[in-house]
Every structure is written in C-alpha cells, then in structure tokens.
Amino acid sequence: MAQPVVFRRKLKEQVQAALENGRVVLFSAPCGFGKTTTIRAILAGNRMIEVSAGSPDFQLPDVSDRWNLLVVDDLQELTDEKLQRALCEMIRENPRRRFVFLSRGIVPGWLVPFEIVGMLAVFRAQDLLLDRESVGQLLEAYGVSVPDVMLTSIYRQSAGYPLAISLLARRMMRGDAYGKAVSNQVRQEIFLYYEETVFLRLELPVRRLLMELAPFECITTELARIVSGSSRAGEILLQLQRTTTMMHQKGLDCWYFWPLFRQFLLWELEQNYSEEQRRNLYGRGGLYYELREEYGRALECYSRIRDYSKVSQLLVKNAEMHPGMGHYCDMEPYYRALPEREILSSPALMQAMSMLCALCMDYEQSEVWYRKLAEFEKSRQPGDADARDARGRLAWLDISLPQRKVENSIEMFPKLFRQLAAREIRLPPFSVTDALPSLLNGGKDYSPWGKDSERLYTMMRAPVEAVLGRDGVCMLDCAAAENEFEKGEDIRDRIVWILQNIDRIRRDGTPDIEFGAVGLLARMQMDSGHSADARSSLENLRERFEACGETRFLPNLDAMICRANLRMDNDEAVDEWYRERAPRKPQQFWTMKRYQYFTQAMVELAFGDEETALLTLAPLEPYCKICSRYIDSIYLDVLSSIAFCRLGDKRWRQKLCDALDIAVSFGFFRPIAQYGAAILPLLESCGWDGDAAFLEKLTRLTRQQAALYPDYLQPRKAMTAPLSAMELQVLQLLCANKSNAEIGRILDIKLPTVKTHVSHILGKLGVKRRSEVKAAAQRLHLIH
C-alpha cells in the first residue's frame, strides 16, 4: 500500500499562509519527520518542480518554464556559493513564484536575509510532530484501530514522531500487538534507518566524535576536546550544527542531541567500543566535570564505571561545602550508597550525613551521625589533626543543623571566636541563607536575636564576622535592616547604606549575602507598590549570577520573581513558572526548597485551587515546629487560613490566630500584612484579642497592601459559560491576532457570524476588549 500522509490540522493552513505572505518556506528537521511527503501533500495541485541539492547533477530550473513553485530537497548539501547566489537572485527576481526548501540543517547564512525581512518562514521539527488526533488518523490510515487509552500511550511514547508511528502502524497492521516488545523492535528499525541514511555517510572522525559525546547530556567545546582528545572537536561541532538538526545549540558553547538520536548514538557506542574504551570515556568526562566543580555530573560518570574511590573523594569535597552549595539533594543517592565503614573513616562524610539526614527531616538519624562524629573525636588524641578537624565539624553542625535552636548560638559564637583565635578548631564554610533571599530567615531563623537587636548587634558583631568569615561581611547589617522591615519600620536609610556597600559585599563577602541584600531591596520595592522595579532588580541579579555560574540561587530567584509577577497580575509569567519551575511534588519534600513551596502554594491560591495549596503546605508544618521556624510558621498559618476560609473550613480562624500569636511575640507586621486583600477580611473577623494596638497597626499596613494590589492572591475569575467548539476555534485565531475577516476566511463563515462569536467569547471570558482575550484565555488554560 502507498504510504499514508498525515500531519497536524493547522500545518497546511500555516504553510499556505506563509507562502502567500512571504513566498519562501524552509522545513528544518532531522530525518524521519516526513518533510518531503508532507510538503507534496500540502502543495498538491501546484505547477511544482522538485529537485534535490544532494543530486550530482543538481541545477536550478529555467525561469522560462511553466512552474509556479520550486521545491529544493536536501538543502544542507547546497554548498556551491555560485548556486547559492543564483538561487537567491531567482527568489528576488520572481515575486510571483514560491519556493520551498527541505533541510536536515539549520537556516543557512545565505538565506538569513530573507528571514530577517519576513520573506522566509521556517518550520521546525516540532511543527512536524503529530498531535494525538493526527496520530490516531495515521493509525486509521493503515487500517489500525486502537482504544483511547492505547492511543494516548502511543502518542506519549512516540512523542508524535512520524517515522516511529508509521513503523509501529505497519507492524500492528500485520497483527503485532502493541507493547514493549514491538516498541523495542520499532526502535531497532529506526536505529538501522539512522545508521544507513545518516551515520555511515559521515566521515569516520565525525562518527567517532558523535559516539564519544553521546554519554553526555550537555556538550561544550572543552568537553568535546577532553573526551575525544581531538583538537578539531570544536570545528566538527560547528560543521554538524550547520548540516544537521540532530544537534541543538543551547547558549554560545553548549550543544545537546535530539533525544532519540542520542539513544541511537549510545547504541552505536555499545556496538563499536569495548568496555575499556567506554570506561575511559566516562572517566575523562568525570575529570572534566570535577575540574569545573560540577560534582553531580562527575559523580554520575564515576558511578557508571564503578570508580567508588573517586566517588568517595568527590563526596568528601562536596561535604567541605556548605548546604547551599553542597547539592545534597542531587547527591543524596551517592551518599546513601557509600559503605558505612567508609563514612566512619571520614569526619567530612559523617558531617555530611548528619546534615543530609536533617535536610531530609530525618532528625533522629542526623543526631546518630552527630554522635558518631563526636565518638570519632573522643577516640583521637586532643592534639591530633583528625581530632581538631572533627571538633570543627561538630561546631559547624551545632550552628548549622536546622534542628538546633538559634537561641543557643548566642553563647556559642563567642566561644567559637575564642577557639578560632587559639587555633583549636578550623570551621568549614557556612551558608547563612541556604540560598534564600533572607538573612533573618535563611539557613536559620534568627528572629529571637531581633528581640534585643541593638545589644546583640554590638555584642555579636566581632565574633559573628570572625566565625562566619566571608559570610559575615555585612551580614548583621542586612539582618538588622530585615528585622526592622518585618516590624513595619521605614528602612530606606538602611537600604541606601546596603546599596552603597554592595561592591564590598561582592568583593569581600559571598553571593549569599548579596542575594539577601537584593532580596530585601526587592521586598521593600514590592511593599511600596513598585513590583516592576522589584522584578527588574531580581532579573538583573539573576543575569549576574547566571553569568558567574552561581546557579544554586536561580530556583529561589525565579520563585521571588514569580511573587513580583503575582502582584502585577502577570498571569502568563506566573503560569510559566508554575508549569516549568515549581517543585509540585509534596510527597518528595525537601527543606531546601521551602521558599519555592510557599511560592507554589501562593500560585495555587491565585488559581483558586485551595485543596492543592493545602497539600503543598502540609509537609512544612512538622519542619517549622521542629526547627523553630517562626517566620515560616507565620507564612504557613496565614496561607493555610486563606485556603481553609475559602473552602468553608472553620479551622481558618485558629490558623490565623496562631500566626498572630507568633507575630505579636516578635513585633512582626509584614509577614502577615504582605498578603493584603487576601487576608484583610479574615483579620477583620477572626476575633483575635491578643493585642489591640498591634492588630490596629497590622490592619492598617494590610489595607495599604490591599490598596496597592487589590487582586493579589485573589482566585482567578471563571468563565460565565463554557465555549462551544466553534468558539474555541475562533478563540485560537483571536489569540493569533487574526482579524475578523481573516477568521471568517479561515473558518469559512460569514463576517456577522464571526462578530457574534467574538462577542460571545468576550462575555464568557469576562473581558471587554479583544486585546484582553489572550491573557484571559491563558489564565483559564484555554490556550498554551
């Protein structure tokens, strides 16, 4: 039977519109996407000439011939500059003719000018992937009928890749049952197809480089050179980028393989390289990542080749870093896999295990490892280097473990200061923030220090800065400013001082303190109604941190930017954060992500999904109690109170009263007032009688926030009625900025009918203008 041709419903309209408006179309996709068969089906009926740039006798057609559309296949093979210029000239001098190019590579440089001026439209691999509906149509074209559940499974497993679905359909047409076995057979057929049509046509050095890079997810020029040992690796990568879309560029010097092609290359590697050769590849890759201090990826490489000695060494190095930099979440499986005897021989690993267990909320096991480290210290002579090392790590844990009360550290810092001065101990690096945008509520909650801040500020400054080292630079100044901010005081002078010292923080301090300082600035900006400025401050810091490789801060930075967008009613950006960056796994709670969990719950409240918000918040409750997180407890109780109230659950009153009890004990206003319009009616009716003056000031500050952000955390408006099938189609075209006339022509309906549909859509979405439709549709998840 002839090969059926199926593509997404809208693709034909998009291609025809592109040719009508711009005259030139380029399909850029790897092999197996059906570029040639699809374009033949779309353009059937035109006076069309087809040529292949890969043909030895390739030449351009005569312009005097009767044709109105030229299709050039294998455009990546067109390297003759004279022919390139001739083709460009033909496009420019024949405005009534249309041109379609099919390529396995990216847009060539000589065609870019046409793209810039809008004459060239580019369709990429994702445009040729089939959606669920077209997958079903292709199966039916082969005479294969499947139930909905199986169709969904086929669609997801194939990711809409046309070649995979066609091969599967042929097997099912012959009677093969869909399942794991037939899927593996299809994959094998695809690999053999790639081998014949792509891989074996490449030069040997290119094939070797591709196989040797396949084990690595993100490829840089330096990695390619180290792993392959080839000085031409960078040149080959650039050549591949121009001639194939099996590799994609991410940044200026980072490439990654199309997933299925990477699987094929790993299969080729298995066929062509010995076990020893593969071990050497992973070993060189591990060394590359180790030198760059990307210990997670290095551990993955060393674990693949069972080099447990290197794994242990890297975990010791990782344990030397503070929790904000230690990547314990990513490295937890490697720590857990270490033999106990190996951990017991290393103070650094015992310290790491104690902290790792605490971060997983296994406080009992955390204390077990703490005691084992203490036993190790006692078993050595007092002057022994190992004993000194263990004492320093025990002191580090006493300050850093989340279950240790911060009140005890008031006496501990002066003691450690004396021990450091006498060189009795050496302390590993600290993280006072856990990569959070707060000094007061970062690695530990230092709220108890703020009850007598002036005395503590004077008494503790010298020992804290000495013990914390670079992390102590401006730390107390920023913490004091934040303490005043939480108490509802004006901190503009404090912020000016911090900004005047930001260069000193960058030079002598750490990125943790910089994040805390800029985070406080952004909070003050949001509090005063300047959320756009706050977002700009955070985005500038994000750009700086990304350029410096300080990626550990980015998840919390993105969460804080999301909070600014929530205040600005920027639903599109909020949705994007929730879809792409929110943890969204309450069953895999990780305390280092608590700032993101709170942000996630805030977004869910804004979605009107109160039950999900409560599920997100639930794991935080035992953590806040055990670890004395006073400010986080306020956040937890306030957000829970809002959710319970909206669900009609009477527990909202007790939750809010609990938050007020904590807040009044520290004199904190802003941890509650920041929720503005969402919490204001609850404050007015909760019946709390703890402190009338406190409640009066809190209500006043909350009203100010409600006036600045009246829709903050308010549930999104639902539609007044569902859209009909035709209204959904009109909505899609409205969101694509089509005029009423264009919508009528595309859907083949009259103009008055279009206007009626548009009017109904505006009413159902609760908006007044066409310009508001797209934002409303995205907010309601009607379009992506």
Shape: globular
Return residue spans where pLDDT drops below 50 for at least 5 consecutive residues.
none
Tell me what the CATH architecture of the largest domain is: Alpha Horseshoe
- Counting structural domains, the number is 6
Physical arrangement of strands within the biggest beta sheet: 2-3-4-1-5
**Approximate helicity band:** 55-70%
The biggest beta sheet reads:
5 strands, parallel
Mean pLDDT: 88
Structural classification = mainly alpha
CATH topology of the largest domain, anyone?
Serine Threonine Protein Phosphatase 5, Tetratricopeptide repeat
Radius of gyration: 31 Å
SS field, number of helical segments: 43
Strand proportion: under 5%
How many angstroms separate the termini? 38 Å
The CATH class of the largest domain is Mainly Alpha
| Strand segment count | 7
